[in-house]
Design brief:
There is one protein chain. By secondary structure, this protein is an alpha+beta fold. It has a domain of 121 residues: Orthogonal Bundle (Helicase, Ruva Protein, domain 3). 49% of the residues lie in helices and 8% in strands. It is built from 15 helices and 9 strands. A 5-stranded antiparallel beta sheet has the order 6-8-9-5-7. It has a two-stranded antiparallel sheet with strand order 1-2. It has a two-stranded antiparallel ribbon with strand order 3-4. Strand 1 and strand 2 form a beta hairpin. Helix 6 packs across helix 8, helix 8 packs across helix 15 and helix 14 crosses helix 15.
């Protein structure tokens, strides 16, 4: 039986079919209208020069495997408890503790200035790239060009990221043909997209460049800056465990927006034991366990983590990994 979901996914894949007939010898045909339009827009009111943009694009290779990753039917979503187990491993926790201890002075200095506890900075790096050990092997130029020109569902987004990448390469003196990252173009230990790299990247040691691959001061400060600029509230929790009455009318979030407060959730049979004011914005989050349904309530800092990756499960994993790392780090404040 062909389901409505299968039809939708098939249509999405059809939309994303690349214009292979418009490429030659594994290169993009720069005469394609969408590419000439991109070049015109990239050099308008911009420090980018047409000859330089054309030269870089001539070096880009279409990557059909990336389109496969973007369009194939997703695997069945794992339940939260199983997803969590993949991140909360002893190896990942121990590596996070080691990273914190190795860079304690820098992390605590950045935390004091940004208001973001060290464990959350470290945990994001643990979830994103296993602390810089898995940063992606795709050429960012190829990934972004493929998605910009051969993936219609999100072409506008990726064309802007390609333009941001060209600007970033020029500003940071990077060879755009050599930069490696994820299949979506995310880079470095924090897996910043080019626009985030340019907006939130920090030259923490004032060396004149922002290095998010090997310079831990830059990496830590950039992650903390992202969270701070996204609205992190110092001293406030990310999540609270929730007890939901059997007859509760409250429903877990479908979109990341605050439509409830602790008081309004309590009126619907959702209780947390939180000492925050009843007027505190809050959202109910599904956190199913192996033995049945379970729930949490997310606050502003939970929302902030979802700005990094728009997934409730991701934000919960970051929180739980952060707490586990803090609990295992000598002298750390695990209550933050």
């Amino acid at each position: 039986m062909i389901t409505r979901r299968a039809l939708a996914l098939g249509f999405l894949a059809l939309l994303a079919t690349p214009a292979w007939s418009a490429t030659a010898h594994g290169r993009f045909d720069l005469s394609r209208p969408e590419i000439t339009s991109f070049i015109d827009e990239a050099v308008t009111d911009s420090p980018l020069k047409r000859a330089a943009v054309v030269k870089v694009l001539k070096a880009a290779h279409p990557q059909p495997s990336i389109l496969d990753l973007m369009t194939r039917q997703p695997e069945q979503v794992q339940p939260w408890w199983k997803y969590r187990a993949g991140f909360l491993t002893k190896k990942r926790i121990d590596a996070g503790v080691h990273l914190w201890l190795a860079h304690r002075a820098a992390l605590e200095r950045i935390a004091a200035r940004r208001g973001v506890p060290p464990q959350y900075i470290v945990a994001i790096l643990g979830c994103e790239t296993f602390y810089g050990r898995m940063m992606g092997s795709n050429r960012v130029l190829d990934a972004l060009a493929t998605l910009a020109f051969d993936y219609p569902p999100r072409s506008d987004f990726f064309r802007d990221e390609l333009r941001q990448f060209l600007l970033l390469a020029q500003e940071q003196k990077l060879d755009p043909r050599r930069v490696r990252g994820s299949y979506t173009g995310a880079m470095g230990a924090p897996q910043f997209m080019p626009s985030s790299y340019r907006k939130y990247g920090v030259d923490a040691d004032h060396h004149g460049r922002i290095n998010l691959w090997t310079n831990w001061d830059d990496i830590f400060d950039s992650v903390a800056n992202f969270l701070q600029q996204s609205g992190w509230v110092p001293g406030q929790p990310v999540l609270a465990e929730a007890q939901v009455a059997p007859d509760s009318t409250a429903r877990p979030i479908e979109h990341f927006e605050f439509t409830q407060t602790l008081d309004s959730l309590a009126a619907q049979g959702v209780h947390t034991g939180s000492t925050l004011p009843g007027t505190t914005p809050a959202m109910l989050v599904a956190a199913d366990q192996e033995n049945g349904p379970a729930f949490r309530v997310g606050f502003q800092n939970f929302y902030v983590i979802t700005r990094y990756n728009r997934s409730a499960r991701y934000a919960m994993a970051v929180n739980d990994l952060a707490q586990a790392i803090a609990a295992a780090t000598p002298g750390a404040d695990a209550t933050q």
